[in-house]
Write a structure and sequence with these properties.
This protein is mostly helical. It has a domain of about 170 residues. The protein has nine helices and no strands. It starts with a helix and ends with a helix.
Amino acid sequence: MSRGSKQAGQPNVLGRYWGIPESFVGLALAVLFMLLLVRWLTSGGYYDGHLALVLSYAVVWVPLLGACVFACFVAGTGSLKTDLRLQFTVLDALFGISIGLLARAVASLIEIAFYGRMSGLGVTFGEIVYDGWWVFGTLLAPILLAPFVEELFFRGLVQNSAQRVLTRTLPRSGALLISLLVSGSSFTLLHLAEVTNVTAGLVLGLSTLVFGLGSALLTTLTGRIGGSIVAHVTFNGSLVLAALLA
């Protein structure tokens, strides 16, 4: 089959277990690199704060994006729309904002239940220096880049590939439900890799699980990841905004 035929968007050209190995390797490497980075940063040695900032995102983004690129352009059809459901409509924006705000409200209730107040998951900025590093670390990375990368991986690759594989052996409803749970739980697992105590783990774990499941449900209902990207931008952006206004 020619490359041109693959790009035509034929789902059946994908291998039987397409996306599953890539999902596993991408997530495993991201968690491993995060743990190694945390160990290095807490070892007491000297490190540059700007380097630490870049590495904190790079150790996650590189494995996740690498898995998506390999799955789509090497093992897949070469179409982001077909393989990873990368599509966007006006309704996706409306649904995404709604899911993002709802998930943030639930996350705030979780914080109140554990801490007695809304802590913003401990997000603080200290003394602000408005330079390029501030723009990257406060606005660009958490609000725009991280949502795109993480949704492309967890909803575009993990959820989509799990659904493709499961529909071969399960009823469609069962495949959709399990793939939704796999996407939401793996998303939570990645974020728990940076937790240092039980209480923070419960708060962060429940909060990210709520959002992960909501985002995965939106992807299931629309068949696209555009809404989940907007939801993630809203979820992260509302937290950053609250921290800046505090």
